[in-house]
Design goal:
With about 350 residues, this protein is α/β, with parallel strands linked by helices. It is built from twelve helices and five strands.
Amino acid sequence: MTFVDEVKTAVTPRAALLVIGVLALQLLFITSYVGALHSPKLRDVPFGVVAPEQPAARLVGRLQSLPGDPLDPRRVTDEATARRQIMNREINGALIVSPTSKTDTLLVASGGGTVLSSALTALTTKVEASQQRTVETVDVAPASDRDFNGLSAFYLVVGWCVGGYLCASILAISAGSRPANRERALIRLGAMTLYSVAGGLGGAIIVGPVLGALPGSIVALWGLGSLLVFSVGAITLALQALTGVVGIGLAVLIVVIAGNPSAGGAFPLPMLPPFWETIGPALPPGAGTWAARSIAYFRGNTVSGPLQVLSIWAIAGSVITLIMASLRRPDTGGSLPSGT
């Protein structure tokens, strides 16, 4: 047997295609993470201005004309409204202009990302200094002292996502990528449900009572984690039902390569390039990170949208898995089905 024959025997065409696929995922991983995170900058950050009408119009115009369009300023009627809009995550900060002194107040929310609040502070301080004014920063939703750079919610979500696609992958590796019939697809989804409940609870307990990294309702975080783990697991099962073992790679593409750098974890969404800022909220890591921070720091406000996103992924994954299992032809050769 020649060396070429040995290579053909050792490396099948299927294995070669899988290796090429892994190489593609590797290069996409580098492109996605470096592309999204190598040069963060403020871009059209929703920002409130509280001031009398004429000074407010001038200040809004000045902020709109800043190089690079870092802010998307709008006038807010009063400080109470500005605080409420920050807590509802409608704006990321607000400048309260004092009519009686040269010191104004900047409202930020480091619970939504300390990098973003620091960048807003630095920019506002520079703008105020150009007008011979100073600024005092007030954090209306401060990140926990044990939540360095506000990253705990993101890492919690990453852990939940990893658990979701690994559990689904193990189910495929142990008993075939495609379930043999609808009943066995239901068993897999049932196992995924039990795992999701356990994983969601475990993550909530670790970041809450055990480490004290995140405040907020443990029950709410448990529910979020369970839904997130199941949504990632369900879509992984669906991709495996559609494409076989390649579905694991596709799940990694969606969740890890596209989802993690666009989740607003290391840098909140307004600091990401437009493409990643756009896709982030529609993917499980982005929806999960937003919801986890809302639960921890913003009284649970504005979680309905992310929960709807996760529910859509969960329902779509479950339906596709069941449909693909139902379309499989039964084994008529007398042998037992290999999938479970």
